[in-house]
Amino acid sequence: MAQMETDYLRRRKKEIILQNGFTKQNDDKKPKQEFMLRESPLTALVEGSLHIRAIYHIFVVILLILFCDTMIYDFVERGKINIGVTTIVHGFGDIRRGAKIWLFELAVALAFYPLLRIYAATQKLFKNFPAARKISSILGILGVGLLEILVIAVPTWDLAKEHLAIGSSVAVTSEMFRLAMKIHATAVACAPRCLDDGTPLPTFKHYVYFLFAPTLVYRDEYPRTKKIRWSVVLFHFLEVAAIIFYNSFLWERFILPYWSDYGKEARVEAGTFVRGMFACVLPGVISFLCGFYCLLHAWLNAFAEMLKFGDRLFYEEWWTSSQFSWYIRAWNRVVYSWLRDHIYRPLAPLAGSSISTFVVFIVSSVAHEVILALSFGFFYPVVLMEFGVCGLILLALTASSGRRFPRLMNLCIWLCLFLGNGIFWSLYPMEYFARKNCPPSETDSFFIPKSWSCPEIVLKPNWSFQNPFSLLINYN
Length: 476
Known about the structure:
Blueprint: H1 2-17, H2 41-48, H3 50-78, H4 85-91, H5 95-125, H6 130-161, H7 166-194, H8 204-212, H9 230-259, E1 267-269, H10 270-279, H11 281-306, H12 324-331, H13 333-351, H14 353-376, H15 382-404, H16 406-437, E2 456-458, H17 470-475
Parallel strand pairs: 1-2
Helix pairs in contact: 2-3, 3-9, 5-6, 5-7, 6-7, 7-14, 9-11, 10-16, 11-16, 13-14, 14-15, 15-16
Transmembrane segments: 54-73, 101-120, 135-154, 228-249, 276-300, 347-366, 378-399, 411-428
Active site: 368
Pfam families: MBOAT
């Protein structure tokens, strides 16, 4: 068993050396990464290591303990059994409206294919008319841009006009960005073919396959498995459902007790505020790990299995990162690959590596901020500051020190993840309940956090600083 784990790690190290990424050394000269048959790292580790499997079982046991805690506490206190369904139903409320928005997004994405065919036919028709071909190319670029704007702008307008439940909003806003990125990737890959009669366009069937495939990088062919293992699909979907309940328990048992009354009183003691923020660190990082596993492992592996998509490397061993640049590349390879191919590489020869990296960070941060703002119903630039500012600082600090002090820098990255998630899971609930509990004001705004002015955070009346060294001085 140990030999199997060692072989896996040795093989992964060789793959990491061959990885593409927006590093500073000749990234634009590297060949595009090819897809291949491979499992997700956690799949290989859980199957090949009893130690990792034991950690997996620990998380399952924690879920069961939280499940029992919720049921027994509610039965003793209220005489009823609550298994977290209320929070989930509230979080994914108005599913019908969410489904309508998603169907609109899908319809726009599907409309791209016939427009692509029309554009190719127009280019062929104007083959001997360079001026007309150039005008057609400009109209084609504008058309793709219009579709991408449409698939993002209409759901954004709809959600801004009337708030949708948090879970449903996260789903439809994530989908609008995913489908816009799919349209862009297909357009970039197929545009040169419209000018070349020798290379055929993809079939509609293949385009639909790409829309649902767990990748944002377009290829004519992907490695495929031989059959669908429906037991694996069911297992991964059960994991998704369990993690949704897991996060519901975390919200009910660790977040609500500290922040649900925030704003009901005009003043809050600073000690209560600080204690609440640190109390959210552990549930925050657990929720972060669960979210990673739910989306990037269980959800994507379930769709990969249903579509017989062979390349399951949706992430890499980001938890061993000693450089923040590697963490960014390894954490979410699906989005990272799109940012690399369609933002970093086209921009790097013109603006340089540093500016291109900065643009990638800002674009990613803004997209996450839009999802959160539309989902919560207010703008609070926590992610923008954590990744767009602190992330860039951490990127520079760990660039060289990560190679010299890998263990120390890995510890620092985990410390930042703990603190960052604790801040995230504190500030957003604070703002959410401040808007819910504080009295209305003329200065209320979507873009100005309510929690900055209500309630007032104060020190205790008899608070005074006591020098911890004074006892030692007095003793001597």
